[in-house]
Design a protein that fits this description.
Mean pLDDT: 86
Number of strands: 16
Catalytic activity: oxaloacetate + H(+) = pyruvate + CO2
Structural class: alpha/beta
Family: Belongs to the malic enzymes family.
Number of domains: 3
Shape: globular
CATH architecture of the largest domain: 3-Layer(aba) Sandwich
Strand content: 5-15%
Organism: Nelumbo nucifera (Sacred lotus)
Largest sheet: 7 strands, mixed
Keywords: Metal-binding, NADP, Oxidoreductase
Low-confidence stretches: 1-44, 60-88, 90-101
Number of helices: 27
CATH class of the largest domain: Alpha Beta
Distance between the termini: 11 Å
GO biological process, one term: malate metabolic process
Helix content: 40-55%
CATH superfamily of the largest domain: Malic enzyme, N-terminal domain
Length: about 650
Amino acid sequence: MISLKAGSFLQNNSTSFSGISSFSHSQRKVSAPVVVALNSNGRGGERKFKALMESTLKEIREGASALDMDPKPNPGAGVEDVYGEDRATEDQPVTPWTTSVASGYSLLRDPHHNKGLAFTDKERDAHYVRGLLPPAVVTQELQEKKLMHNLRQYQVPLQRYMALMDLQERNQRLFYKLLIDNVEELLPVVYTPTVGEACQKYGSIFRRPQGLYISLKEKGKILEVLKNWPEKKIQVIVVTDGERILGLGDLGCQGMGIPVGKLALYTALGGVRPSSCLPVTIDVGTNNEELLKDEFYIGIRQKRATGQEYSELLHEFMCAVKQNYGEKVLIQFEDFANHNAFELLAKYRASHLVFNDDIQGTASVVLAGVVAALKLVGGTLAEHTFLFLGAGEAGTGIAELIALEMSKQTKAPIEETRKKIWLVDSKGLIVSSRMESLQHFKKPWAHEHEPLKTLLDAVKAIKPTVLIGSSGVGKTFTKEVVEAMASFNERPVIFALSNPTSQSECTAEQAYTWSKGRAIFASGSPFDPVECNGKVFVPGQANNAYIFPGFGLGLVISGAIRVHDDMLLAASEALAGQVTEDNFDKGLIYPPFCNIRKISAEIAANVASKAYELGLATRLPRPANLVKYAESCMYSPVYRNYR
């Protein structure tokens, strides 16, 4: 039995692979399955591979001629690709050669192809799994129903996380079907807040590698390490160095849970094919003493490398990625410490397709929430005053994007629009008298004002209409702060964005109760609906998962080579435009997650449109309908039929 995944080689050969299976077994009486695992690594390997294939093709032609077989083109022999997602977002009409599983027991151990009890009787015979499964044949829908029932039995969120990760390693399509169909229930499990606990305990729960680990030991040979990854056509990389995981601090190598979780959402919410996603952790050590003493820690046991040693490793990684995967691979920086996050984005944004979710993704989703909230509050963006608690990568990133949007709307210089935005850090209000001691990314927000030490003092003096928390410190929006906001705003807008839930500046219940139900509230982590003054409020979640999957898909389908700030604004506008009147009636400023794939398609289309407009798109000609094109490119988790 030969099961091959066809690729670019077939495009230049007229002979089909249709009927290989029947020819191999029925005509030649081969008694055992023939497993062909082909992988074209390097030029020498490619030459050998092509020579082997030419010989095989010749043999097949002769056999087909002798048996009067019909040589119709059939890319994907052994697999009937009725959904087409393997071709989605590819430059070539069919996928390149990859390692393939042919049949039998190994097929049931391959998460990319395994269907479990959903294999039909015909497929069980054709692929030598007869007897390796119980006799029942069930649908994917019934499998999904059983798994959701089982997941709901777990009382501990981390147990659900581990069960889902096991499923991903066992049956990839069923994992994504489960996640897509139950996104609102499962998002907090594979993403915040549960992924934070998973990272803290990653050494204890680690079972199988789900991405690439590049440590200081790999310095000088990162390109070789990248070639060890089995998939050769990568479109999206999420990379972290684990120094600032959510609001939990330095988790070192155990930060891998973040790239794994983010890329699961790229596929489930944005439709980017899982085979084109690569999670990466850069391990330069950790300053977390508890981890260094933990016998189960999976990273290198040393203090964090900094300075030149750190920069050289990151630079080698960036160059190796571009060399191995090309100009159009998206590199998403995730959970780097402030100083490195800003530096890496500034250093590589002109030469690579890079995106920092903490700086840019958070900014885009918050801007969308603010734009939507204005429909409830009234007034234009420039007529409001913003106060931030937290002046790190998230806070300054959000502030800058709001200032850019204000500038776009009013045609005023961005230096002017920044004056409507104030930031408070650990030392108090950022003012011009502190200029010399400020980090470079805080300096644009140092305005003329007397120094103020506390957030409450700043709220009372500045009188903001919008209060945004990105400090990573919980319980900082106190009762006095919220009551002060409510005292001079009919509808105070309060965003408590810090993750996980334990680090949120305030809870939804506190915001609604202390404002007597008048606050427009959104948070970074999910909160349950709240009843206040006889009315039920559904808190919004300013979750980056609204933005980055669709944003990444837009870059991929347009073949973008660089990220421009206007693309982030385009993503925000698309998200804000998805909030319906029915959503507003419930006090929501974000659309429900159950529609996330449609939302992502709209965002992708808007981002792609901006890429074409800016001359940064390489996939030509431009599709006539970008929304339909985005939807057509999305990965489907529905099982494929095997011949």
